[in-house]
Amino acid sequence: MNLNSEGFKNSRISLDGPRGIYYSGQVISGKIEFELNQSLTFTAINVVYHGGASVLWTEPQTEIYSGVKRYTQVEYRANEEYFNTVQHLCGGNGTSILHQGSHSIPFEFQIPFSVPSSFTSPIGNVTYKISAYLEAPPLREELERTFEVVAPLDLNKDESGDAQQPIEMQFEEMYSCCCSTQPISIGVKLPVSGYCPGQPMPITINADNNSSTEISKIIFQLIMKERYHSRNPVSEYTPPEKLLATMKKGPIMGNSKRVYTFEMPVPEMIAPHLDNCGIIDLGYFFKVIIKLSGCNDDMEDESEIYIGLIPLEITTRGNIYVHPMSHSLPKDPIPDPNSAPNFTSLPVYMSGGMGTENRSSSTNLVNTNSCTPYGSRSNMSTSTVHSVNAMPSAPYPVQENPRPYEIGFKI
């Protein structure tokens, strides 16, 4: 979005990452770029980094007053905040001058390791954005730029070990015919529960059909489930599950045995990791549906599958795993929270085009709970503070310690 006030043109927030996609824990850097047709007196230029989630859906409600029905729509909503930080770039105490010409003001910010992935759906979303504010009384200008975050899930670092556990399903059914029982026994097994996009899921089926009933087909599905939590009022909403991939085997005739060994590939996707989001649950499941001939009921079962970004070492077979959508992932390597260096902000913008009055030696990173979106109150003259709508406070304490390897669909 461009600044439209008198004297500005070609204004934008540019990011050094060409894709605008970053891993959690990565340093995001860029520039505020604009041109001035004439000199401008201003009080502060600040950047606000914000990450949060929100959900909203409506449900019909019937109310009866004095015997008269009234139909209304009830809104269910919730908001959650992961960070909301102001970075002071220049000015902030008294007035300074930006001279005519082109200006490029750099900024840097380290994304917290514990934030969830970006996510968008009709019901809820997890979004991240950068807002730049220019305070030049009586004018106040704003630029905004969104960016995406990928929370990388390393399946090897799941402390619960669930991703390394095998999946085993057993289906048993008894049929009676001529005073005898005729059992159907089908076993389905996967060696582990954790995979990455593009990887094959090895599936083994042992079918022992001792009945005269035909097993018409066995369907295998990879599905995604979502669940949304509202806090005003408190409720939950679960939309229909989404089918990501499917395969089938069969038929298996009566009084026969079959053994199948095959592979079902995980679809090419960037699977969002939302375990650190408290209002949106997202999980993946391996479902098996057994179709029997005639009027017999189907048999089905499912087990949770964990889709990560770094595969289990036992599933790579000594090969180097390459994500099938690496062109849509950040170019830089995944940061390690245990070896990440201490982040140091850039100095305040001190180009030759700006007045030297009231400069500081480094940027200020401050929480907006104790400042306006234009900087710390303690560092700004009260005569130059202009209030705007403050961003919402976190509805619950934001996680201080990263817990990126706790996985699973929360029950």
UniProtKB/TrEMBL annotation:
Protein name per the record: (apollo) hypothetical protein
Cited Pfam families: Arrestin_C, Arrestin_N
Keywords on record: Sensory transduction
Keyword Heme: no
Residue intervals of the Arrestin C-terminal-like domain: 180-312
InterPro entries: Arrestin-like_N (IPR011021), Arrestin_C-like (IPR011022), Arrestin_domain-protein (IPR050357)
GO biological process, one term: protein transport
This protein's GO CC annotations: cytoplasm
Keyword Metal-binding: no
Family matches, as PANTHER family: ARRESTIN DOMAIN CONTAINING PROTEIN, ARRESTIN DOMAIN-CONTAINING PROTEIN 1
